[in-house]
Amino acid sequence: QVQLVESGGGSVQAGGSLRLSCAGSGFVFNRFIMRWFRPAPGKERELVAVMDNPESTTKYVESVKGRFTISGDSAKTTVYLQMHSLEPGDTAVYYCNALAPWGSHYWGQGTQVTVST
Length: 117
Prior knowledge:
The protein has strands at residues 3-7, 10-13, 18-25, 33-40, 43-52, 57-60, 68-73, 78-83, 92-99, 105-107, 111-116. It is mainly β.
């Protein structure tokens, strides 16, 4: 079955960097859309970054453009979220999501990112 395991979260000061990893198994990486989410005020969750493997495109929420980069390694079935210039507003639990071609969603357990001033 599809499994996702996030890692790489931690505590940093504002302006610092972190790289989140989401190691997957049980699926063909290049057929799935990989996404990173985090909770947001007034929303259940906010879509932070998308890597559409079938279309070879990436998208970001406006607030992280120029600071975050999503990338993947199909050989390792792993998606990354490189985060630079972190701000206190980026503090959240970050969740990895894999969207299958048939519409099913799969989630990781989340990894905590804390940014202090």
